[in-house]
Amino acid sequence: MPVYMIFEIEVKDPGTYAEYMEKVPATVIQYGRRYLVRGGAPTPLTGGWKPERMIILEFPTAEQMRRWNLSPEYLALAPPRERSTSTRAIALDGDSPSVA
Fold it and tell me: How does DSSP classify residue 47?
């Protein structure tokens, strides 16, 4: 079953965050990911939610998502993101096809 990681990001230091953005795709590709959304201008619809930047990653399995999120490659890149942004993230199970 696919798993989705959703990130809401407020960028505080664009230069440092840009360096992170250049390096991180190679790590997620290594762990079977697919970007569904990488930035763009969000359009608020309800509830007063006005995120600055959204990222959605798709992983084939929860295990692959965990392996990436805890990998030495990603953990080496995480501190610059943590310093340059305010980030909230969640993981969601995807929909699995119904068996008839």
Answer: T
